Amino acid sequence: MKIYTLDLETDPFVKDRKPEPFSAGLYDGERFWFTWGPTCVDDIFTVIHRIEPGIIYMHNGGKFDIFYMLHKIDTSKDMLIIKDRIVQCWVATYGGHHRLRDSYKILPFSLSTYKKDEIDYHKLESNVRENYKDEIVSYLRGDCVYLWELCTEYVKMFGPAVTIGATAMKELKKRHDVGEMLTGVIDSEIRTKYFLGGRVERFKKGVFNGVWKVYDVNSMYPYVMSHCFHPVGKPRSVTTHVTPDTYFVTARGFSRGAFPLRTKQGLQYAHSHGVYSITIHEWNTAHELGLFDCHEILECVNFDQSRMFHDYVMHYYNSRKHAKETGDKIKDIFFKFLLNNSYGKFAVNPANFKEYRLTEDTIDLSVESYVPEEIIPDFHLILWSKPSKEFKYANVATGASITGAARAVLMRGLSGAVNPIYCDTDSIICEELTGVTLDESTLGGWKLEKTGNLLAIAGRKMYALWDGERCVKYACKGVKIDPTEIRRAAEGETITYHRDAPTFRLSGSVDWITRRVRTV
What does the CA dihedral 469, 475, 481, 483 come to, rounded to 10 degrees? Predict the structure, then answer.
């Protein structure tokens, strides 16, 4: 199948200014076409309409570039949209159709992770860009070429999958039998009660001096996939006592910060009486550490079939290790994301899947059970949707067990942490970590990642660690603020974040995110 890559250059991002494209580039492994000027999108589609059918990849195109091309989409074919991202649509060509795809769904990382040229974005401003046309076109070509190298190698290795999750599941099933899939009723029962996320906990907030160390687990999710048993197939029975086949437990008792409870603020790990629904991994770890006093077992869900996913994990873990040793950057990146994306596919909820069609606003698809999802007045289009009839449930029980096993590893780590102040899925920030073996070369081993003498904790997924004047680690999910601003937020200041990059809606509207960040 022919592979192409497509990219647009637009005005630099400035808040409240919708960027307009002024150049488009298309690459097929040998030839590079580019267009320049206000009609660059229509002009590049003149090329697209006459070349051999294939897959045209755009990186993050489903959140950006595609919104300049909606008038070019073939409205007779279904679209694939996942969480407001246009993942796949179709464009006519002389010999059939191109599949226009967002490569971010198979390559969920910035292009700079692999290779990317540099340019001063001020050179893209309309009043000076003509002076730098050659440099801009060279930069555009580089993006197209590097993306083509990644996409071509991906398709060559794994086939033309639409998402990396689908690829990971396909590769996992080559090596493991995952058993019979769940029904919608069973999926809902397990998902509602036992499927929880990773443990993210802020024990204190503010700014703290001292010696602070960041410890994390080497490849947490691949580790628990390969070293713990997880249920596959359908549950066999429900009992009120734990059996060798039990994988989920609901019990009433007193938890000493061991088990999560759902709240409006997310998962909470209180020291309190309550009814807790957890995995067998957490149950066993809590009892071993003396962190739960059980008063009554209300339910145990038992499975006939279970397995470790050792072959899959170790194949790609060792393959990635070899890629690192031989300097194969592409395979190193691919194998990393395959390892970290396989478990999530088990928990995808297909009940929310929809079929989408884009039509001219003179066409009524309500007779085919579609409902209007969005009206796009700029292009006189309507996006229609209806619940998908073609989907299969995976096994949320497997996914729930894997995430629970990761929480159990973190629970054990926290039990040996001296003055823990923060934890996040696979890491702990504390003064010292005891009771674990530090071994950064082994899958699942704990390692000391960073050390610092000043720590600012503003909130979940928002902290910064300094060693002297140098920030050695920080996180700020959802916003892009610098470590100094994180510290100010941790001290009680409200930080206003403005995002210069626009957010495109399926309706065709554009807005710019503004958020207020403060410690609560």
Answer: -10
Strands (E), 117-161: none
Query: Is there a domain that residue 369 lies in?
Result: no
- Quick: pLDDT tens for 308-332: 999 999 999 999 999 999 999 999 9
Provide the residue range defining the domain that includes 144: 2-162
154 vs 151: CA distance, rounded Å: 5
DSSP output for 314-379: HHHHHHHHHHHHHT-HHHHHHHHHHHHHHHHHHT--GGG-EEEEEEETT---GGGT-EEEEEEGGG
Q: Does residue 93 contact residue 50 with C-beta atoms inside 8 Å?
A: yes
419 and 480 in a single domain? The answer is yes
142/208 same-domain check = no
DSSP label of 460? T
Q: What is the pLDDT of residue 291?
A: 98
Residues 122 and 204 in one domain: no
- Name the one residue in this structure whose structure tokens are 């051999």: 52
Whether residue 86 sits in one domain with residue 16: yes
Beta strands 200-202 and 422-424, pairing class: antiparallel
Q: What is the mean pLDDT of each run of 10 residues along the chain (520 residues)?
A: 96 94 98 98 96 96 93 89 90 92 96 96 97 98 98 96 92 92 89 93 95 96 96 95 97 96 88 96 98 98 96 96 95 94 86 85 90 87 84 86 97 97 96 92 94 94 95 90 93 91 84 84
Residue 333: what are its φ and ψ, rounded to 5°? -65, -50
Q: What is the DSSP string of 181-244?
A: PPPHHHHHHHHHHH-----EEES--EEEEEEEEEEEETTHHHHHHHHS-EEEEEEEEEESS--T
Nearest CA among 249, 398, 190, 222 for reference residue 310: 222
CATH of the domain at 144: 3.30.420.10
Q: CA-to-CA distance for 23 and 130, rounded, in angstroms?
A: 11
Nearest-angstrom CA–CA distance, 277 and 453: 38
In this structure, is residue 324 part of a structural domain? Answer: no
Task: Specify if 338 maps to a domain.
Answer: no
470 within a domain of the structure (yes/no): yes
CATH code where residue 235 lies: 3.90.1600
